[in-house]
Fold Transposase.
Amino acid sequence: MPPQSELCPHSQFKQVIRSAFDAAYRRAWYWQRTRQGQQIRRVRQRTVEPVFGSLLQHYGLRRANTKGQAAAHKAMLLSAVAYNLEELLKHQPKRVVSLALALQPASLRLLKRSFEPYLSEKHLLAEYSLN
């Protein structure tokens, strides 16, 4: 590596230019050091970042294997929908079947009349008939 005098000939010390956004980076850094910034960071770590971690690890979003930003956006949306459905299935109530069994025969006849147009096949109507 060449000596410092060759790298920066008119300077007494090395200068590192970070970026045009250095002021914004510093503001964000100072904001994260405040009490309110730390609270927001903790909430984000519990809610948002695990989702991104799951999408990266389990849903293959480390790379977008698509052409174009619109296709990558669609892939991200589909992965987010899959993640949300998976989370929704974890929180489904377990006792739904017992509520359906508790219906009275009159309620069952009403349900049958409501869904009769959709059950046009004869074998389906015979299976659910309440004669």
